[in-house]
């Protein structure tokens, strides 16, 4: 497997560590405390909305149709399992080479030609959209559960709604860059495969479509599929962090 040149280790989330290992992208670590960085991300209108949510005194009446104990855990597990299964079942992440059931046959069917990265990009974007929609809906449901508990929990639900709106665009823009970073990793593996077959140097892309036609779906592409799946699961972990916060608050009620 071909990875990016060695560099210093990162202590950030698994997604950042993976992308740093697989790509040439730089991820400078900030020395600023999180509170200071968050302050830079908030506009004055966002600060007003957050202040209003923090200072509100909601009148919270307990719902008579309160969900059963542990309902939030069951719901969170169901959504997370569904999103993980969607990644595991994705067709682009599964080898499509024909399998022969005769061990000693010499007339094996040729391996499929390797797909272009565009297919992987489209799949990644679709899975990102699936994660974003499912988690947004889940947060809405969890906030409703919190609002039915105590005034303090209702206030927390309001704060989460503001933070989702304020940071949602920033999160979307940051994660939208991931498919492009994976494209560089795909090309690195592709060039290395061509070079190993004596068709093109590893440092430069092949000059003709004839070289591309020699690429087959094989171990090099399986390595990319494995890396792409790991990145998707690491992204799911990041996207699920606000859910885990709401889940912890519900457990504490």
TrEMBL record:
InterPro entries: DUF3348. Pfam families: DUF3348. Residues 87-113 are annotated as: Disordered. This is DUF3348 domain-containing protein.
């Amino acid at each position: 497997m071909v990875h990016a040149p060695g560099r210093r280790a990162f202590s950030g989330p698994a997604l950042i560590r993976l992308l740093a290992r697989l790509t040439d992208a730089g991820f400078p670590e900030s020395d600023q405390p999180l509170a200071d960085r968050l302050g830079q991300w908030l506009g004055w209108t966002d600060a007003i909305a957050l202040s209003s949510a923090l200072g509100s005194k909601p009148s919270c009446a307990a719902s008579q149709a309160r969900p059963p104990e542990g309902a939030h855990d069951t719901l969170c597990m169901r959504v997370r399992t569904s999103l993980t299964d969607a990644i595991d079942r994705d067709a682009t992440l599964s080898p499509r080479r024909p399998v022969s059931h005769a061990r000693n046959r010499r007339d094996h069917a040729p391996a499929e030609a390797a797909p272009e990265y565009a297919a992987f990009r489209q799949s990644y974007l679709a899975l990102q959209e699936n994660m974003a929609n499912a988690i947004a809906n889940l947060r809405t449901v969890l906030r409703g559960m919190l609002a039915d508990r105590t005034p303090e929990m209702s206030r927390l639900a309001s704060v989460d709604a503001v933070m989702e709106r304020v940071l949602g665009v920033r999160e979307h823009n940051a994660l939208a860059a991931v498919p492009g970073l994976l494209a560089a990793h795909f090309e690195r593996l592709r060039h290395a495969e061509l070079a190993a077959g004596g068709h093109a140097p590893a440092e430069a892309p092949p000059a003709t479509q004839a070289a591309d036609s020699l690429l087959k779906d094989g171990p090099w592409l399986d390595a990319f599929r494995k890396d792409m799946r790991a990145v998707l699961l690491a992204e799911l972990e990041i996207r699920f962090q606000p859910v885990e916060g709401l889940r912890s608050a519900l457990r504490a009620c």
